[in-house]
Amino acid sequence: MTVRNSIRVLGLALAVLPGTAFAHPGHELVSGAAGGLMHPFTGLDHILAMLLVGIFAYQLGGRALWALPLTFLAAMAAGGLLGSAGPESWMVETGIALSVIGLGAAVALNVRAPVALAAAAVGVFAVFHGFAHGAEMPATADAVSYGAGFMLGTAILIGTGIGAAFALNKARGEPAGGLMRSAGTVAAVAGVGILTGMV
Questions:
Q1: 3-state secondary structure of 22
Q2: Average pLDDT for residues 114-126, to the nearest whole number?
Q3: pLDDT by residue (tens digit) across 53-73?
Q4: What's phi and psi for 24, nearest 5 deg?
Q5: Percentage of the chain modeled with pLDDT above 70
Q6: Is the dihedral of CA 175, 176, 182, 185 positive or negative?
Q7: Rounded to whole angstroms, how far apart are CA atoms 21 and 124?
């Protein structure tokens, strides 16, 4: 599949996403585990970053398949604690957008980073995502159940990224690498759009 076709596929996917995928409204309406579970799915930035973590982990292979997801989840939990104690700032949204750009670029360039370095970078990005989850937690929500919910939602998205990369590789072999890199390129461009407010 060419880059042009990859862009068309992503464009179609974005067209059918609900409007809430581009913002984070309405969190006050759902609290507890259900609200936490839904939260990672309510922002395009979160969706892209977590799928990319899974794809990046698959590209690196070996220990990265468990090290990157677990590091992301642990760092996100720490960020969630910080976010629940303080208001969200523009720096958090900027950090989230930069995570999409950085992870998209890593996938696009098929970066062969040492697992420790890749995990450290993923962990830094995860803190921003966790902070946003914690800061946007409804005041009436139980922090433990809400946190468990958004951790599960995140794990599902990361697992989906790994599973999609595995399925592509199984079905298409070597061409799948090009498709994953094209998807990373498109995601990085989307990250620029998120950063600049165009998306």
A1: strand
A2: 97
A3: 999 999 999 999 999 999 999
A4: -125, 55
A5: 81
A6: negative
A7: 23
Give, in order, the Cα–Cα distances in Å from 197 to each of 23, 93, 97, 143, 177: 11, 11, 10, 30, 30
Query: Is residue 29 very low, low, confident or very high in pLDDT (cuts 50, 70, 90)?
Result: very low
CA gap 121, 84 in Å, rounded: 23
* Residue given tokens 């890593």 in the structure block: 106
Residue 17 pLDDT > 80: no
Residue 114, phi-psi category: left (phi > 0), alpha (psi -120 to 50), beta (remainder): beta
Q: Rounded to an integer, what distance in angstroms lies between the CA atom of residue 108 and that of residue 185? A: 5
| Helix (H) or strand (E) segment spanning residue 39 | none
Helices (H), 26-142: 32-38, 44-60, 64-84, 90-108, 115-135
Distances from the Cα of 193 to the Cα of 7, 43, 177, 189, 199, angstroms:
14, 14, 25, 6, 5
Determine the average pLDDT of the residues in 147-161: 95
Distance of CA 60 to the CA centre of its chain: 17
pLDDT band at 77 (very low <50, low <70, confident <90, very high): very high
Which residue, among 130, 110, 117, 123, has the nearest Cα to 176 in the 3D structure?
A: 110
* Pair of tokens at residue 94: 């900027």
Q: Tokens representing 68?
A: 């990157």
Residue closest to 69 by CA, chosen among 165, 168, 195: 165
pLDDT for the residue numbered 34: 85
